[in-house]
């Protein structure tokens, strides 16, 4: 199976929205948990992606440490079930760098020039583009324009 970067982005955006933290009256932190099954069968995500693609992507996000889990059930080397409790700092950094559709689309276009790239390579590309956009917007626009023109050929 192949990892679809758009599914990874959509899953992380979903988790960012759905995972909630609250402070109880006693001062302790309470947070909700979401199962792998709940995410892979969410109606909004399933309108855009197939359930098995979502489930596969979640397992990759777990293995690549983009999300934190508890009670992971592994059978024959495959994660069958898990409870997702948080997005890790690594996951938040990636998500922060790909929130913008402009950055995300430019990152994907740059990756297409190379071919298939790993999630960590996409994360590095998105970070580079985000840093460039923050420090030199004109250079960022030039690169995005060049990539767009190249992809039109």
Question: How would you portray this structure in words?
Answer:
- 62% of the residues lie in helices and 18% in strands.
- β1 and β2 (29-31) form a beta hairpin.
- With 153 residues, it is an alpha+beta fold.
- α6 packs across α8 and α7 packs across α8.
- The radius of gyration is 17 Å and the shape is globular.
- It is built from 8 helices and 5 strands, in the order αβββαααββαααα.
- It folds into 2 domains: 1-88, Arc Repressor Mutant, subunit A (Orthogonal Bundle); 100-153, no CATH class.
- The strands form 2 sheets. It has a 3-stranded antiparallel sheet with strand order 3-5-4. A two-stranded antiparallel ribbon has the order 1-2.
The gyration radius over C-alpha positions equals 17 Å
CATH hierarchy, class of the largest domain: Mainly Alpha
What's the shape?
A: globular
Helix content: 55-70%
Structural class: alpha+beta
Provide a count of the helices: 8
Q: Count all strands and give the number.
A: 5
Which spans have pLDDT < 50 for at least 5 consecutive residues?
A: none
SSE succession: HEEEHHHEEHHHH
The side-by-side strand order for the widest beta sheet comes to: 3-5-4
| Major sheet attributes | 3 strands, antiparallel
Which fold does the CATH topology of the largest domain refer to? Answer: Arc Repressor Mutant, subunit A
Q: Terminal Cα separation, in Å?
A: 29 Å
Number of domains: 2
CATH architecture of the largest domain: Orthogonal Bundle
Q: Summarize model confidence as the mean pLDDT.
A: 85
- Approximately how much beta-strand content do the residues carry? 15-25%
């Amino acid at each position: 199976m192949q990892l679809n970067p758009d599914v990874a982005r959509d899953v992380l955006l979903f988790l960012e929205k759905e995972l909630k933290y609250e402070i109880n009256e006693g001062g302790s932190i309470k947070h909700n948990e979401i199962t792998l099954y709940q995410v892979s069968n969410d109606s909004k995500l399933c309108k855009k992606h197939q359930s098995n693609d979502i489930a596969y992507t979640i397992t990759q996000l777990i293995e690549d440490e983009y999300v934190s889990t508890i009670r992971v059930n592994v059978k024959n080397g495959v994660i069958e079930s898990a409870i997702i409790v948080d997005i890790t700092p690594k996951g938040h950094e990636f998500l922060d760098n790909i929130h913008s559709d402009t950055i995300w689309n430019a990152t994907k276009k740059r990756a297409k020039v190379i071919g298939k790239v790993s999630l960590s390579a996409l994360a590095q590309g998105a970070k580079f583009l985000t840093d460039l956009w923050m420090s030199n917007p004109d250079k960022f626009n030039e690169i995005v324009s060049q990539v767009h023109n190249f992809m039109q050929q």
